[in-house]
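Continuing the batch. This is chain 6 of the set; chains 1 through 5 are on the previous pages. Same settings as before, nothing changed between runs. Recording input and output for traceability.
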Amino acid sequence: MTQLSLKIIRCPNCGIENRIVYYASINTLMDLDGSQTAKLLNGTLNTSKCENCGVRIRLSLDVLINCPKGMFYLNPTDDLEYKKEQLKTYGVLSEEEKIVSGQVSLFLKAKDKLYLKKQYQPSSLPPPAPKITPHTKIYNEISEEVSKKLIKNKKSERDKKSKIAPKKVKPPLPPPPPKS
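Output for chain 6:
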């Protein structure tokens, strides 16, 4: 997520306090149009004009760049070529020096994963036996006792029903209708 905060900075020219929106981090996936990345490249990110005298005030603080290929820090005051090199390395800038939008960047990362993914080869070995912990032993013992009791109870219920239940006798057939 792109993180913003408000910094109050004194103008180096006139000394008046100015408020500057400070971008502590930029998530390139959320920067859909690439505007924040463009500001980082041209050095206008984390800058403002003094409200009193108009002098450009620049914060010289690192910005965390979060992109699909990883995270890294850049300072908007760094050398332009260095910034371009870092952005190309992490896939934020194309080889033609165009800013790759967040959704395109995400697509390219998924595409790279597909090409790099190795084919699954099942192992010829059987899977390892599950580890039996003391808790597992206790659980197994209890479940075995409970199942034995349930089976015993079912048998006794079945025996009781067979002893108590009267034998079913078929009712007698109704008398035939009178002949007329």
